[in-house]
From TrEMBL:
Entries under Pfam families matching the protein: AAA_lid_14, HTH_8, Sigma54_activat
All residue ranges annotated as the Sigma-54 factor interaction domain in the record: 318-547
Species name: Candidatus Fimisoma avicola
GO terms under biological process: regulation of DNA-templated transcription
Domain of life: Bacteria
Protein name: Sigma 54-interacting transcriptional regulator
Length: 621
């Protein structure tokens, strides 16, 4: 047996060197061995650094579909599209469709594009901002390529004749919870099956997908569904030792270049050895080295964003996938790996306390985490609360004394929230603690050594406070070692849909309330409201809506915010159009750094029209 494994190992090494996968089929027609590269070629294992856990599509998840031939190799019907609120009766088998919608939420409007009887040799594309996400989907029939892109992260699928591609975004986190990949036929993950409720398996690039059925011992026809290929295996199995054939076979709707060799011997290892290679890869190898290098560079570029996201997966309670929030999480991940003093800044309600706890938990989940709200402590009690006091230190003091917050946090983290409100006389004492890593209890002369990591937070501009003399510069420099700014919610509206859903689902679970969903009009208000109170205000509004709404769907009347402030335009058609035009022009100017020439180019307007609209709409120049 060991000799057989050694021989197979040699063959696998040779196959890998030639860029080919190796599958050994035993005399009884079962799979005897399956190389790593063969798993990558057939999609059992992903060669790229992308992956996702097992799961299923849930109500409210955003589903993006790109399908060049509805009903062909996708197990999808027009009726299934109703799950995305797509009810166009003209859609039928054979159509090409690009669609974006919220799963099983009939109140959120989908976006879709249909090409009837899609046999057109032209590019089909859908591009829009949907619920705060920049999403595009395209079908390039000339190059047999379907692509779905979410906020710059692209998922490509090549095809021979037809393919159903899909990406799913989790309604609570905004992260990609599923993406289609080659080998979906083997995994039984056609998009129609998944839309109808089937669980999808884990995808992994750092090892085999153990959720799949075992490959070793499996009947060949259970693993490969290409009729011509299966016939070739049977024919070669009936031949003499050393017989071999080469051909291109359609396996799971993908062309494979295969070399089948018959091996007969008296011991172990008899059967058919299949050396396989993706036909697309064979073709690319025949092209120039420059083209191959460009392809590899493209793959590398596409992998980087996903790799970066994977490094920040520890922030489970700090929700946000907007680019600005990804940057925040990257900084926080770096801070967590070291014991730097961290300064969190940003408006009130942005989630500074949540991020502080997440930074602590990544490296020190079992160590103490002590949160101190500095503006809630009386100035006369500040010293005793932070550093503790000795027995009988002052009138009313406990006879046993008391440990302060710094002692309680020893070996872990102390979070000083609203540090800008610390009284001036306490700032010098805090500075000494940071410098010397020791405290003195009130009324005691014996020092207590403390090993504490400090995370501070404020919504004040401490640099300006130091200039005014209300905050010590030396203390500011000590605590501002690793600054992290959390942007307000109005600057990261791409997170709103997922934050609102996450808060709603969690609140319904905690309070044993029947699950609820947002209607389209409620989503519109949530997306357009500026949220001056940030996540804290959003949480209050969503929880209040869940309480006062007696039905499954939350409507605008359940949201306790001003519709005027939410930007919901009332009035005549002319007034609404003018408001929309003004918003579009202002957004174009903002996107281009107030460069009017670039804004004109983006909007496709003439200079005279642009400047006339600026004047008529009262836009400040």
């Amino acid at each position: 047996m060991k000799e057989q494994e050694k021989e197979y190992g040699i063959l696998e090494s040779i196959a890998d060197g030639l860029g080919r996968g190796l599958v050994y089929i035993k005399e009884d027609g079962t799979i005897g061995a399956y190389s790593k590269l063969a798993k990558e070629i057939t999609g059992i294992r992903l060669p790229e650094s992308q992956g996702h856990p097992a799961g299923r599509i849930e109500e409210g998840d955003i589903v993006i579909i790109a399908d060049n031939d509805l009903g062909n190799d996708d197990n999808l019907s027009a009726a299934d599209l109703k799950l995305l609120n797509i009810k166009d009766k003209s859609i039928s088998e054979g159509d090409g469709i690009l669609a974006i919608g919220a799963y099983k939420n009939s109140k959120i409007t989908p976006v879709f594009k249909v090409a009837k009887g899609y046999g057109l040799k032209e590019r089909m594309e859908l591009k829009c901002r949907y619920l705060g996400f920049d999403i595009s989907a395209s079908i390039d029939d000339d190059n047999n390529l379907i692509s779905i892109s979410v906020n710059g992260q692209t998922y490509d699928m090549a095809y021979i004749e037809a393919i159903g591609h899909m990406v799913v975004l989790d309604k609570n986190t905004g992260k990609v919870k599923f993406f289609q990949a080659r080998g979906y036929g083997f995994r039984n993950e056609e998009i129609g099956v998944l839309l109808r409720g089937k669980e999808f398996i884990r995808k992994s690039s750092d090892g085999d997908n153990t959720d799949l059925m075992p490959q070793i011992g499996l009947k060949t026809e259970k693993l490969f569904n290409g009729a011509d290929f299966l016939k070739a295996v049977k024919d070669v199995m009936d031949c003499d030792d050393g017989y071999g054939i080469e051909n291109v076979y359609d396996i799971h709707k993908r062309l494979m270049f295969c070399h089948l060799v018959r091996v007969k011997n008296d011991g172990q290892g008899s059967g058919v050895y299949v050396f396989m290679q993706d036909k697309d890869l064979v073709s690319s190898q025949l092209s120039s080295k420059e083209a191959m290098a460009a392809s590899l560079e493209k793959i590398k570029r596409k992998r980087l964003p996903e790799e970066n996201v994977q490094t920040i997966d520890g922030f489970k309670n700090f929700i946000g996938n907007d680019r600005s929030m990804i940057a925040v999480k990257r900084l926080a991940a770096k801070a967590a790996k070291n014991r730097f003093n961290v300064m969190l800044t940003g408006e009130s309600g942005t989630g500074k306390s949540v991020l502080a706890k997440e930074i602590h938990d990544i490296q020190m989940p079992d160590a103490p985490f002590v949160e101190v709200c500095c503006n809630a402590i009386s100035p006369t009690l500040f010293e005793s609360e932070l550093f503790g006091y000795a027995p009988g230190a002052f009138t009313g003091a406990s006879s046993q004394g008391k440990a302060g917050y710094f002692e309680e946090a020893n070996g872990g983290t102390i979070f000083l929230d609203e540090i800008g409100d610390i009284p001036p006389e306490m700032q010098i004492k805090l500075l000494h603690v940071i410098q010397n890593k020791r405290i003195y209890r009130v009324g005691d002369t014996k020092p207590v050594d403390v090993n504490v990591r400090i995370i501070a937070a404020t919504n004040k501009d401490l640099e300006k406070e130091t200039e005014k003399g209300t905050f010590r510069k030396d203390l500011y420099y000590r605590i501002n070692v690793f600054p992290i700014y959390i942007p307000p919610l109005r600057e990261r509206k791409g997170d709103l849909y997922f934050l609102a859903n996450s808060i709603l689902d969690q609140y319904c679970r905690e309070c044993s309330i029947e699950p609820k969903q947002f209607s389209q009009e409620a989503i519109d208000i949530i997306m357009s409201y500026p949220w001056p109170g940030n996540v804290r205000e959003l949480k209050n509004v969503v929880e209040c809506a869940a309480n006062i709404c007696d039905e499954e769907l939350i409507y605008s009347e359940h949201l306790m915010i001003s519709q005027g402030k939410a930007g919901i335009v009332r009035g005549t058609l002319k007034e609404r159009l003018e408001k929309a035009e003004k918003d579009i022009i202002q957004e174009a100017l903002s996107n281009n750094g107030l460069d009017k020439n670039k804004a004109i180019e983006e909007l496709g307007l003439s200079r005279s029209t642009f400047y006339k609209k600026i004047k008529d709409l009262g836009i400040e120049q």
